[in-house]
Design a protein that fits this description.
CATH superfamily of one domain: Cytochrome c-like domain
Strand content: under 5%
Shape: elongated
Number of helices: 11
Distance between the termini: 112 Å
Radius of gyration: 31 Å
């Protein structure tokens, strides 16, 4: 009379065992990914190193210097530029140049919080508050219109020894009046280059082009005006004028 009960108990025990086996073995099923760190959504990344590497290092160098663009880890640069400018340029880019907009509101991928992390950490890691102590530096942005004619004389005094006659380059230094270069750099970019130089390449800042004779704010504006005057009106156009092309690309 105990046989049905015994069979029921056996079935129950077997079902329980299979259920436990299934639960334990689910995590080891073929094709199931193993446990690992969760992938952080792009908009949730808050690590400065990751944000900088993914968005800035390609142009400004892996540690804020050594890239083709201005060195962000230059204490002189950070002493001259304010946070509002860093924030605006990072968010909105510089139209007409190679500096893109990174803010989502401007078509980029970074949130306002991520841009703030970049700005604050660049200053916290690379700025030196006393870098220009006792100096009277020119303003980062121009406050007056430059005089191109006088800028040519300024160039000869402060720049020609390195960049050659007329800015056409000499030795290892290329031309700074090259049309392609001038078409891709803004007036502020030119001014920044004169102000802070390129320390990684041995190019001095505004204080050290001529020993004991720092450039004045007006002289910087003047040489930028002279460089601006060399900028081609139609960048990328190989000829100033020429015969018009007929439909299909052939000359008439």
């Amino acid at each position: 009379m105990s046989l049905p009960y015994s069979r029921s108990l056996t079935r129950f025990t077997l079902a329980t065992f299979l259920a436990i086996l299934t639960l334990v073995g689910c995590s080891h099923l073929p094709g199931r990914p193993s446990a690992g760190p969760e992938v952080v959504r792009p908009g949730e990344v808050q690590d400065f190193g990751t944000l900088y590497k993914q968005n800035c290092a390609g142009c400004h160098g892996p540690r804020g210097k050594g890239g083709p663009a201005v060195s962000l880890a230059d204490p002189v640069y950070l002493s001259l530029v304010d946070d509002a400018t860093l924030r605006r340029v990072t968010a909105n880019g510089i139209p007409g140049t190679l500096m893109p907009a990174f803010a989502r509101s401007a078509g980029g991928t970074l949130t306002a919080e991520q841009i703030e992390i970049l700005v604050q950490q660049m200053r916290a890691r690379w700025a030196q508050p006393d870098e220009l102590a006792g100096e009277n530096p020119p303003p980062y942005a121009a406050v007056s219109t430059g005089d191109a004619a006088n800028g040519e004389h300024v160039y000869k005094t402060f720049c020609a020894s390195c960049h050659g006659p007329g800015g056409r380059g000499q030795g290892k230094l290329g031309s700074i009046v090259d049309g392609s270069y001038l078409a891709l750099v803004s007036d502020q970019g030119l001014r920044t280059a004169v102000l802070v130089g390129f320390p990684d390449q041995g190019a001095p800042d505004w204080r050290n082009n001529v020993h004991g004779q720092p450039m004045s704010a007006q002289e910087i504006s003047d040489v930028v005006a002279w460089l601006r005057a060399q900028r081609p009106q139609f960048p990328g156009q190989p000829y100033a004028s020429g015969p018009e092309l007929a439909p299909g690309g052939s000359h008439e």
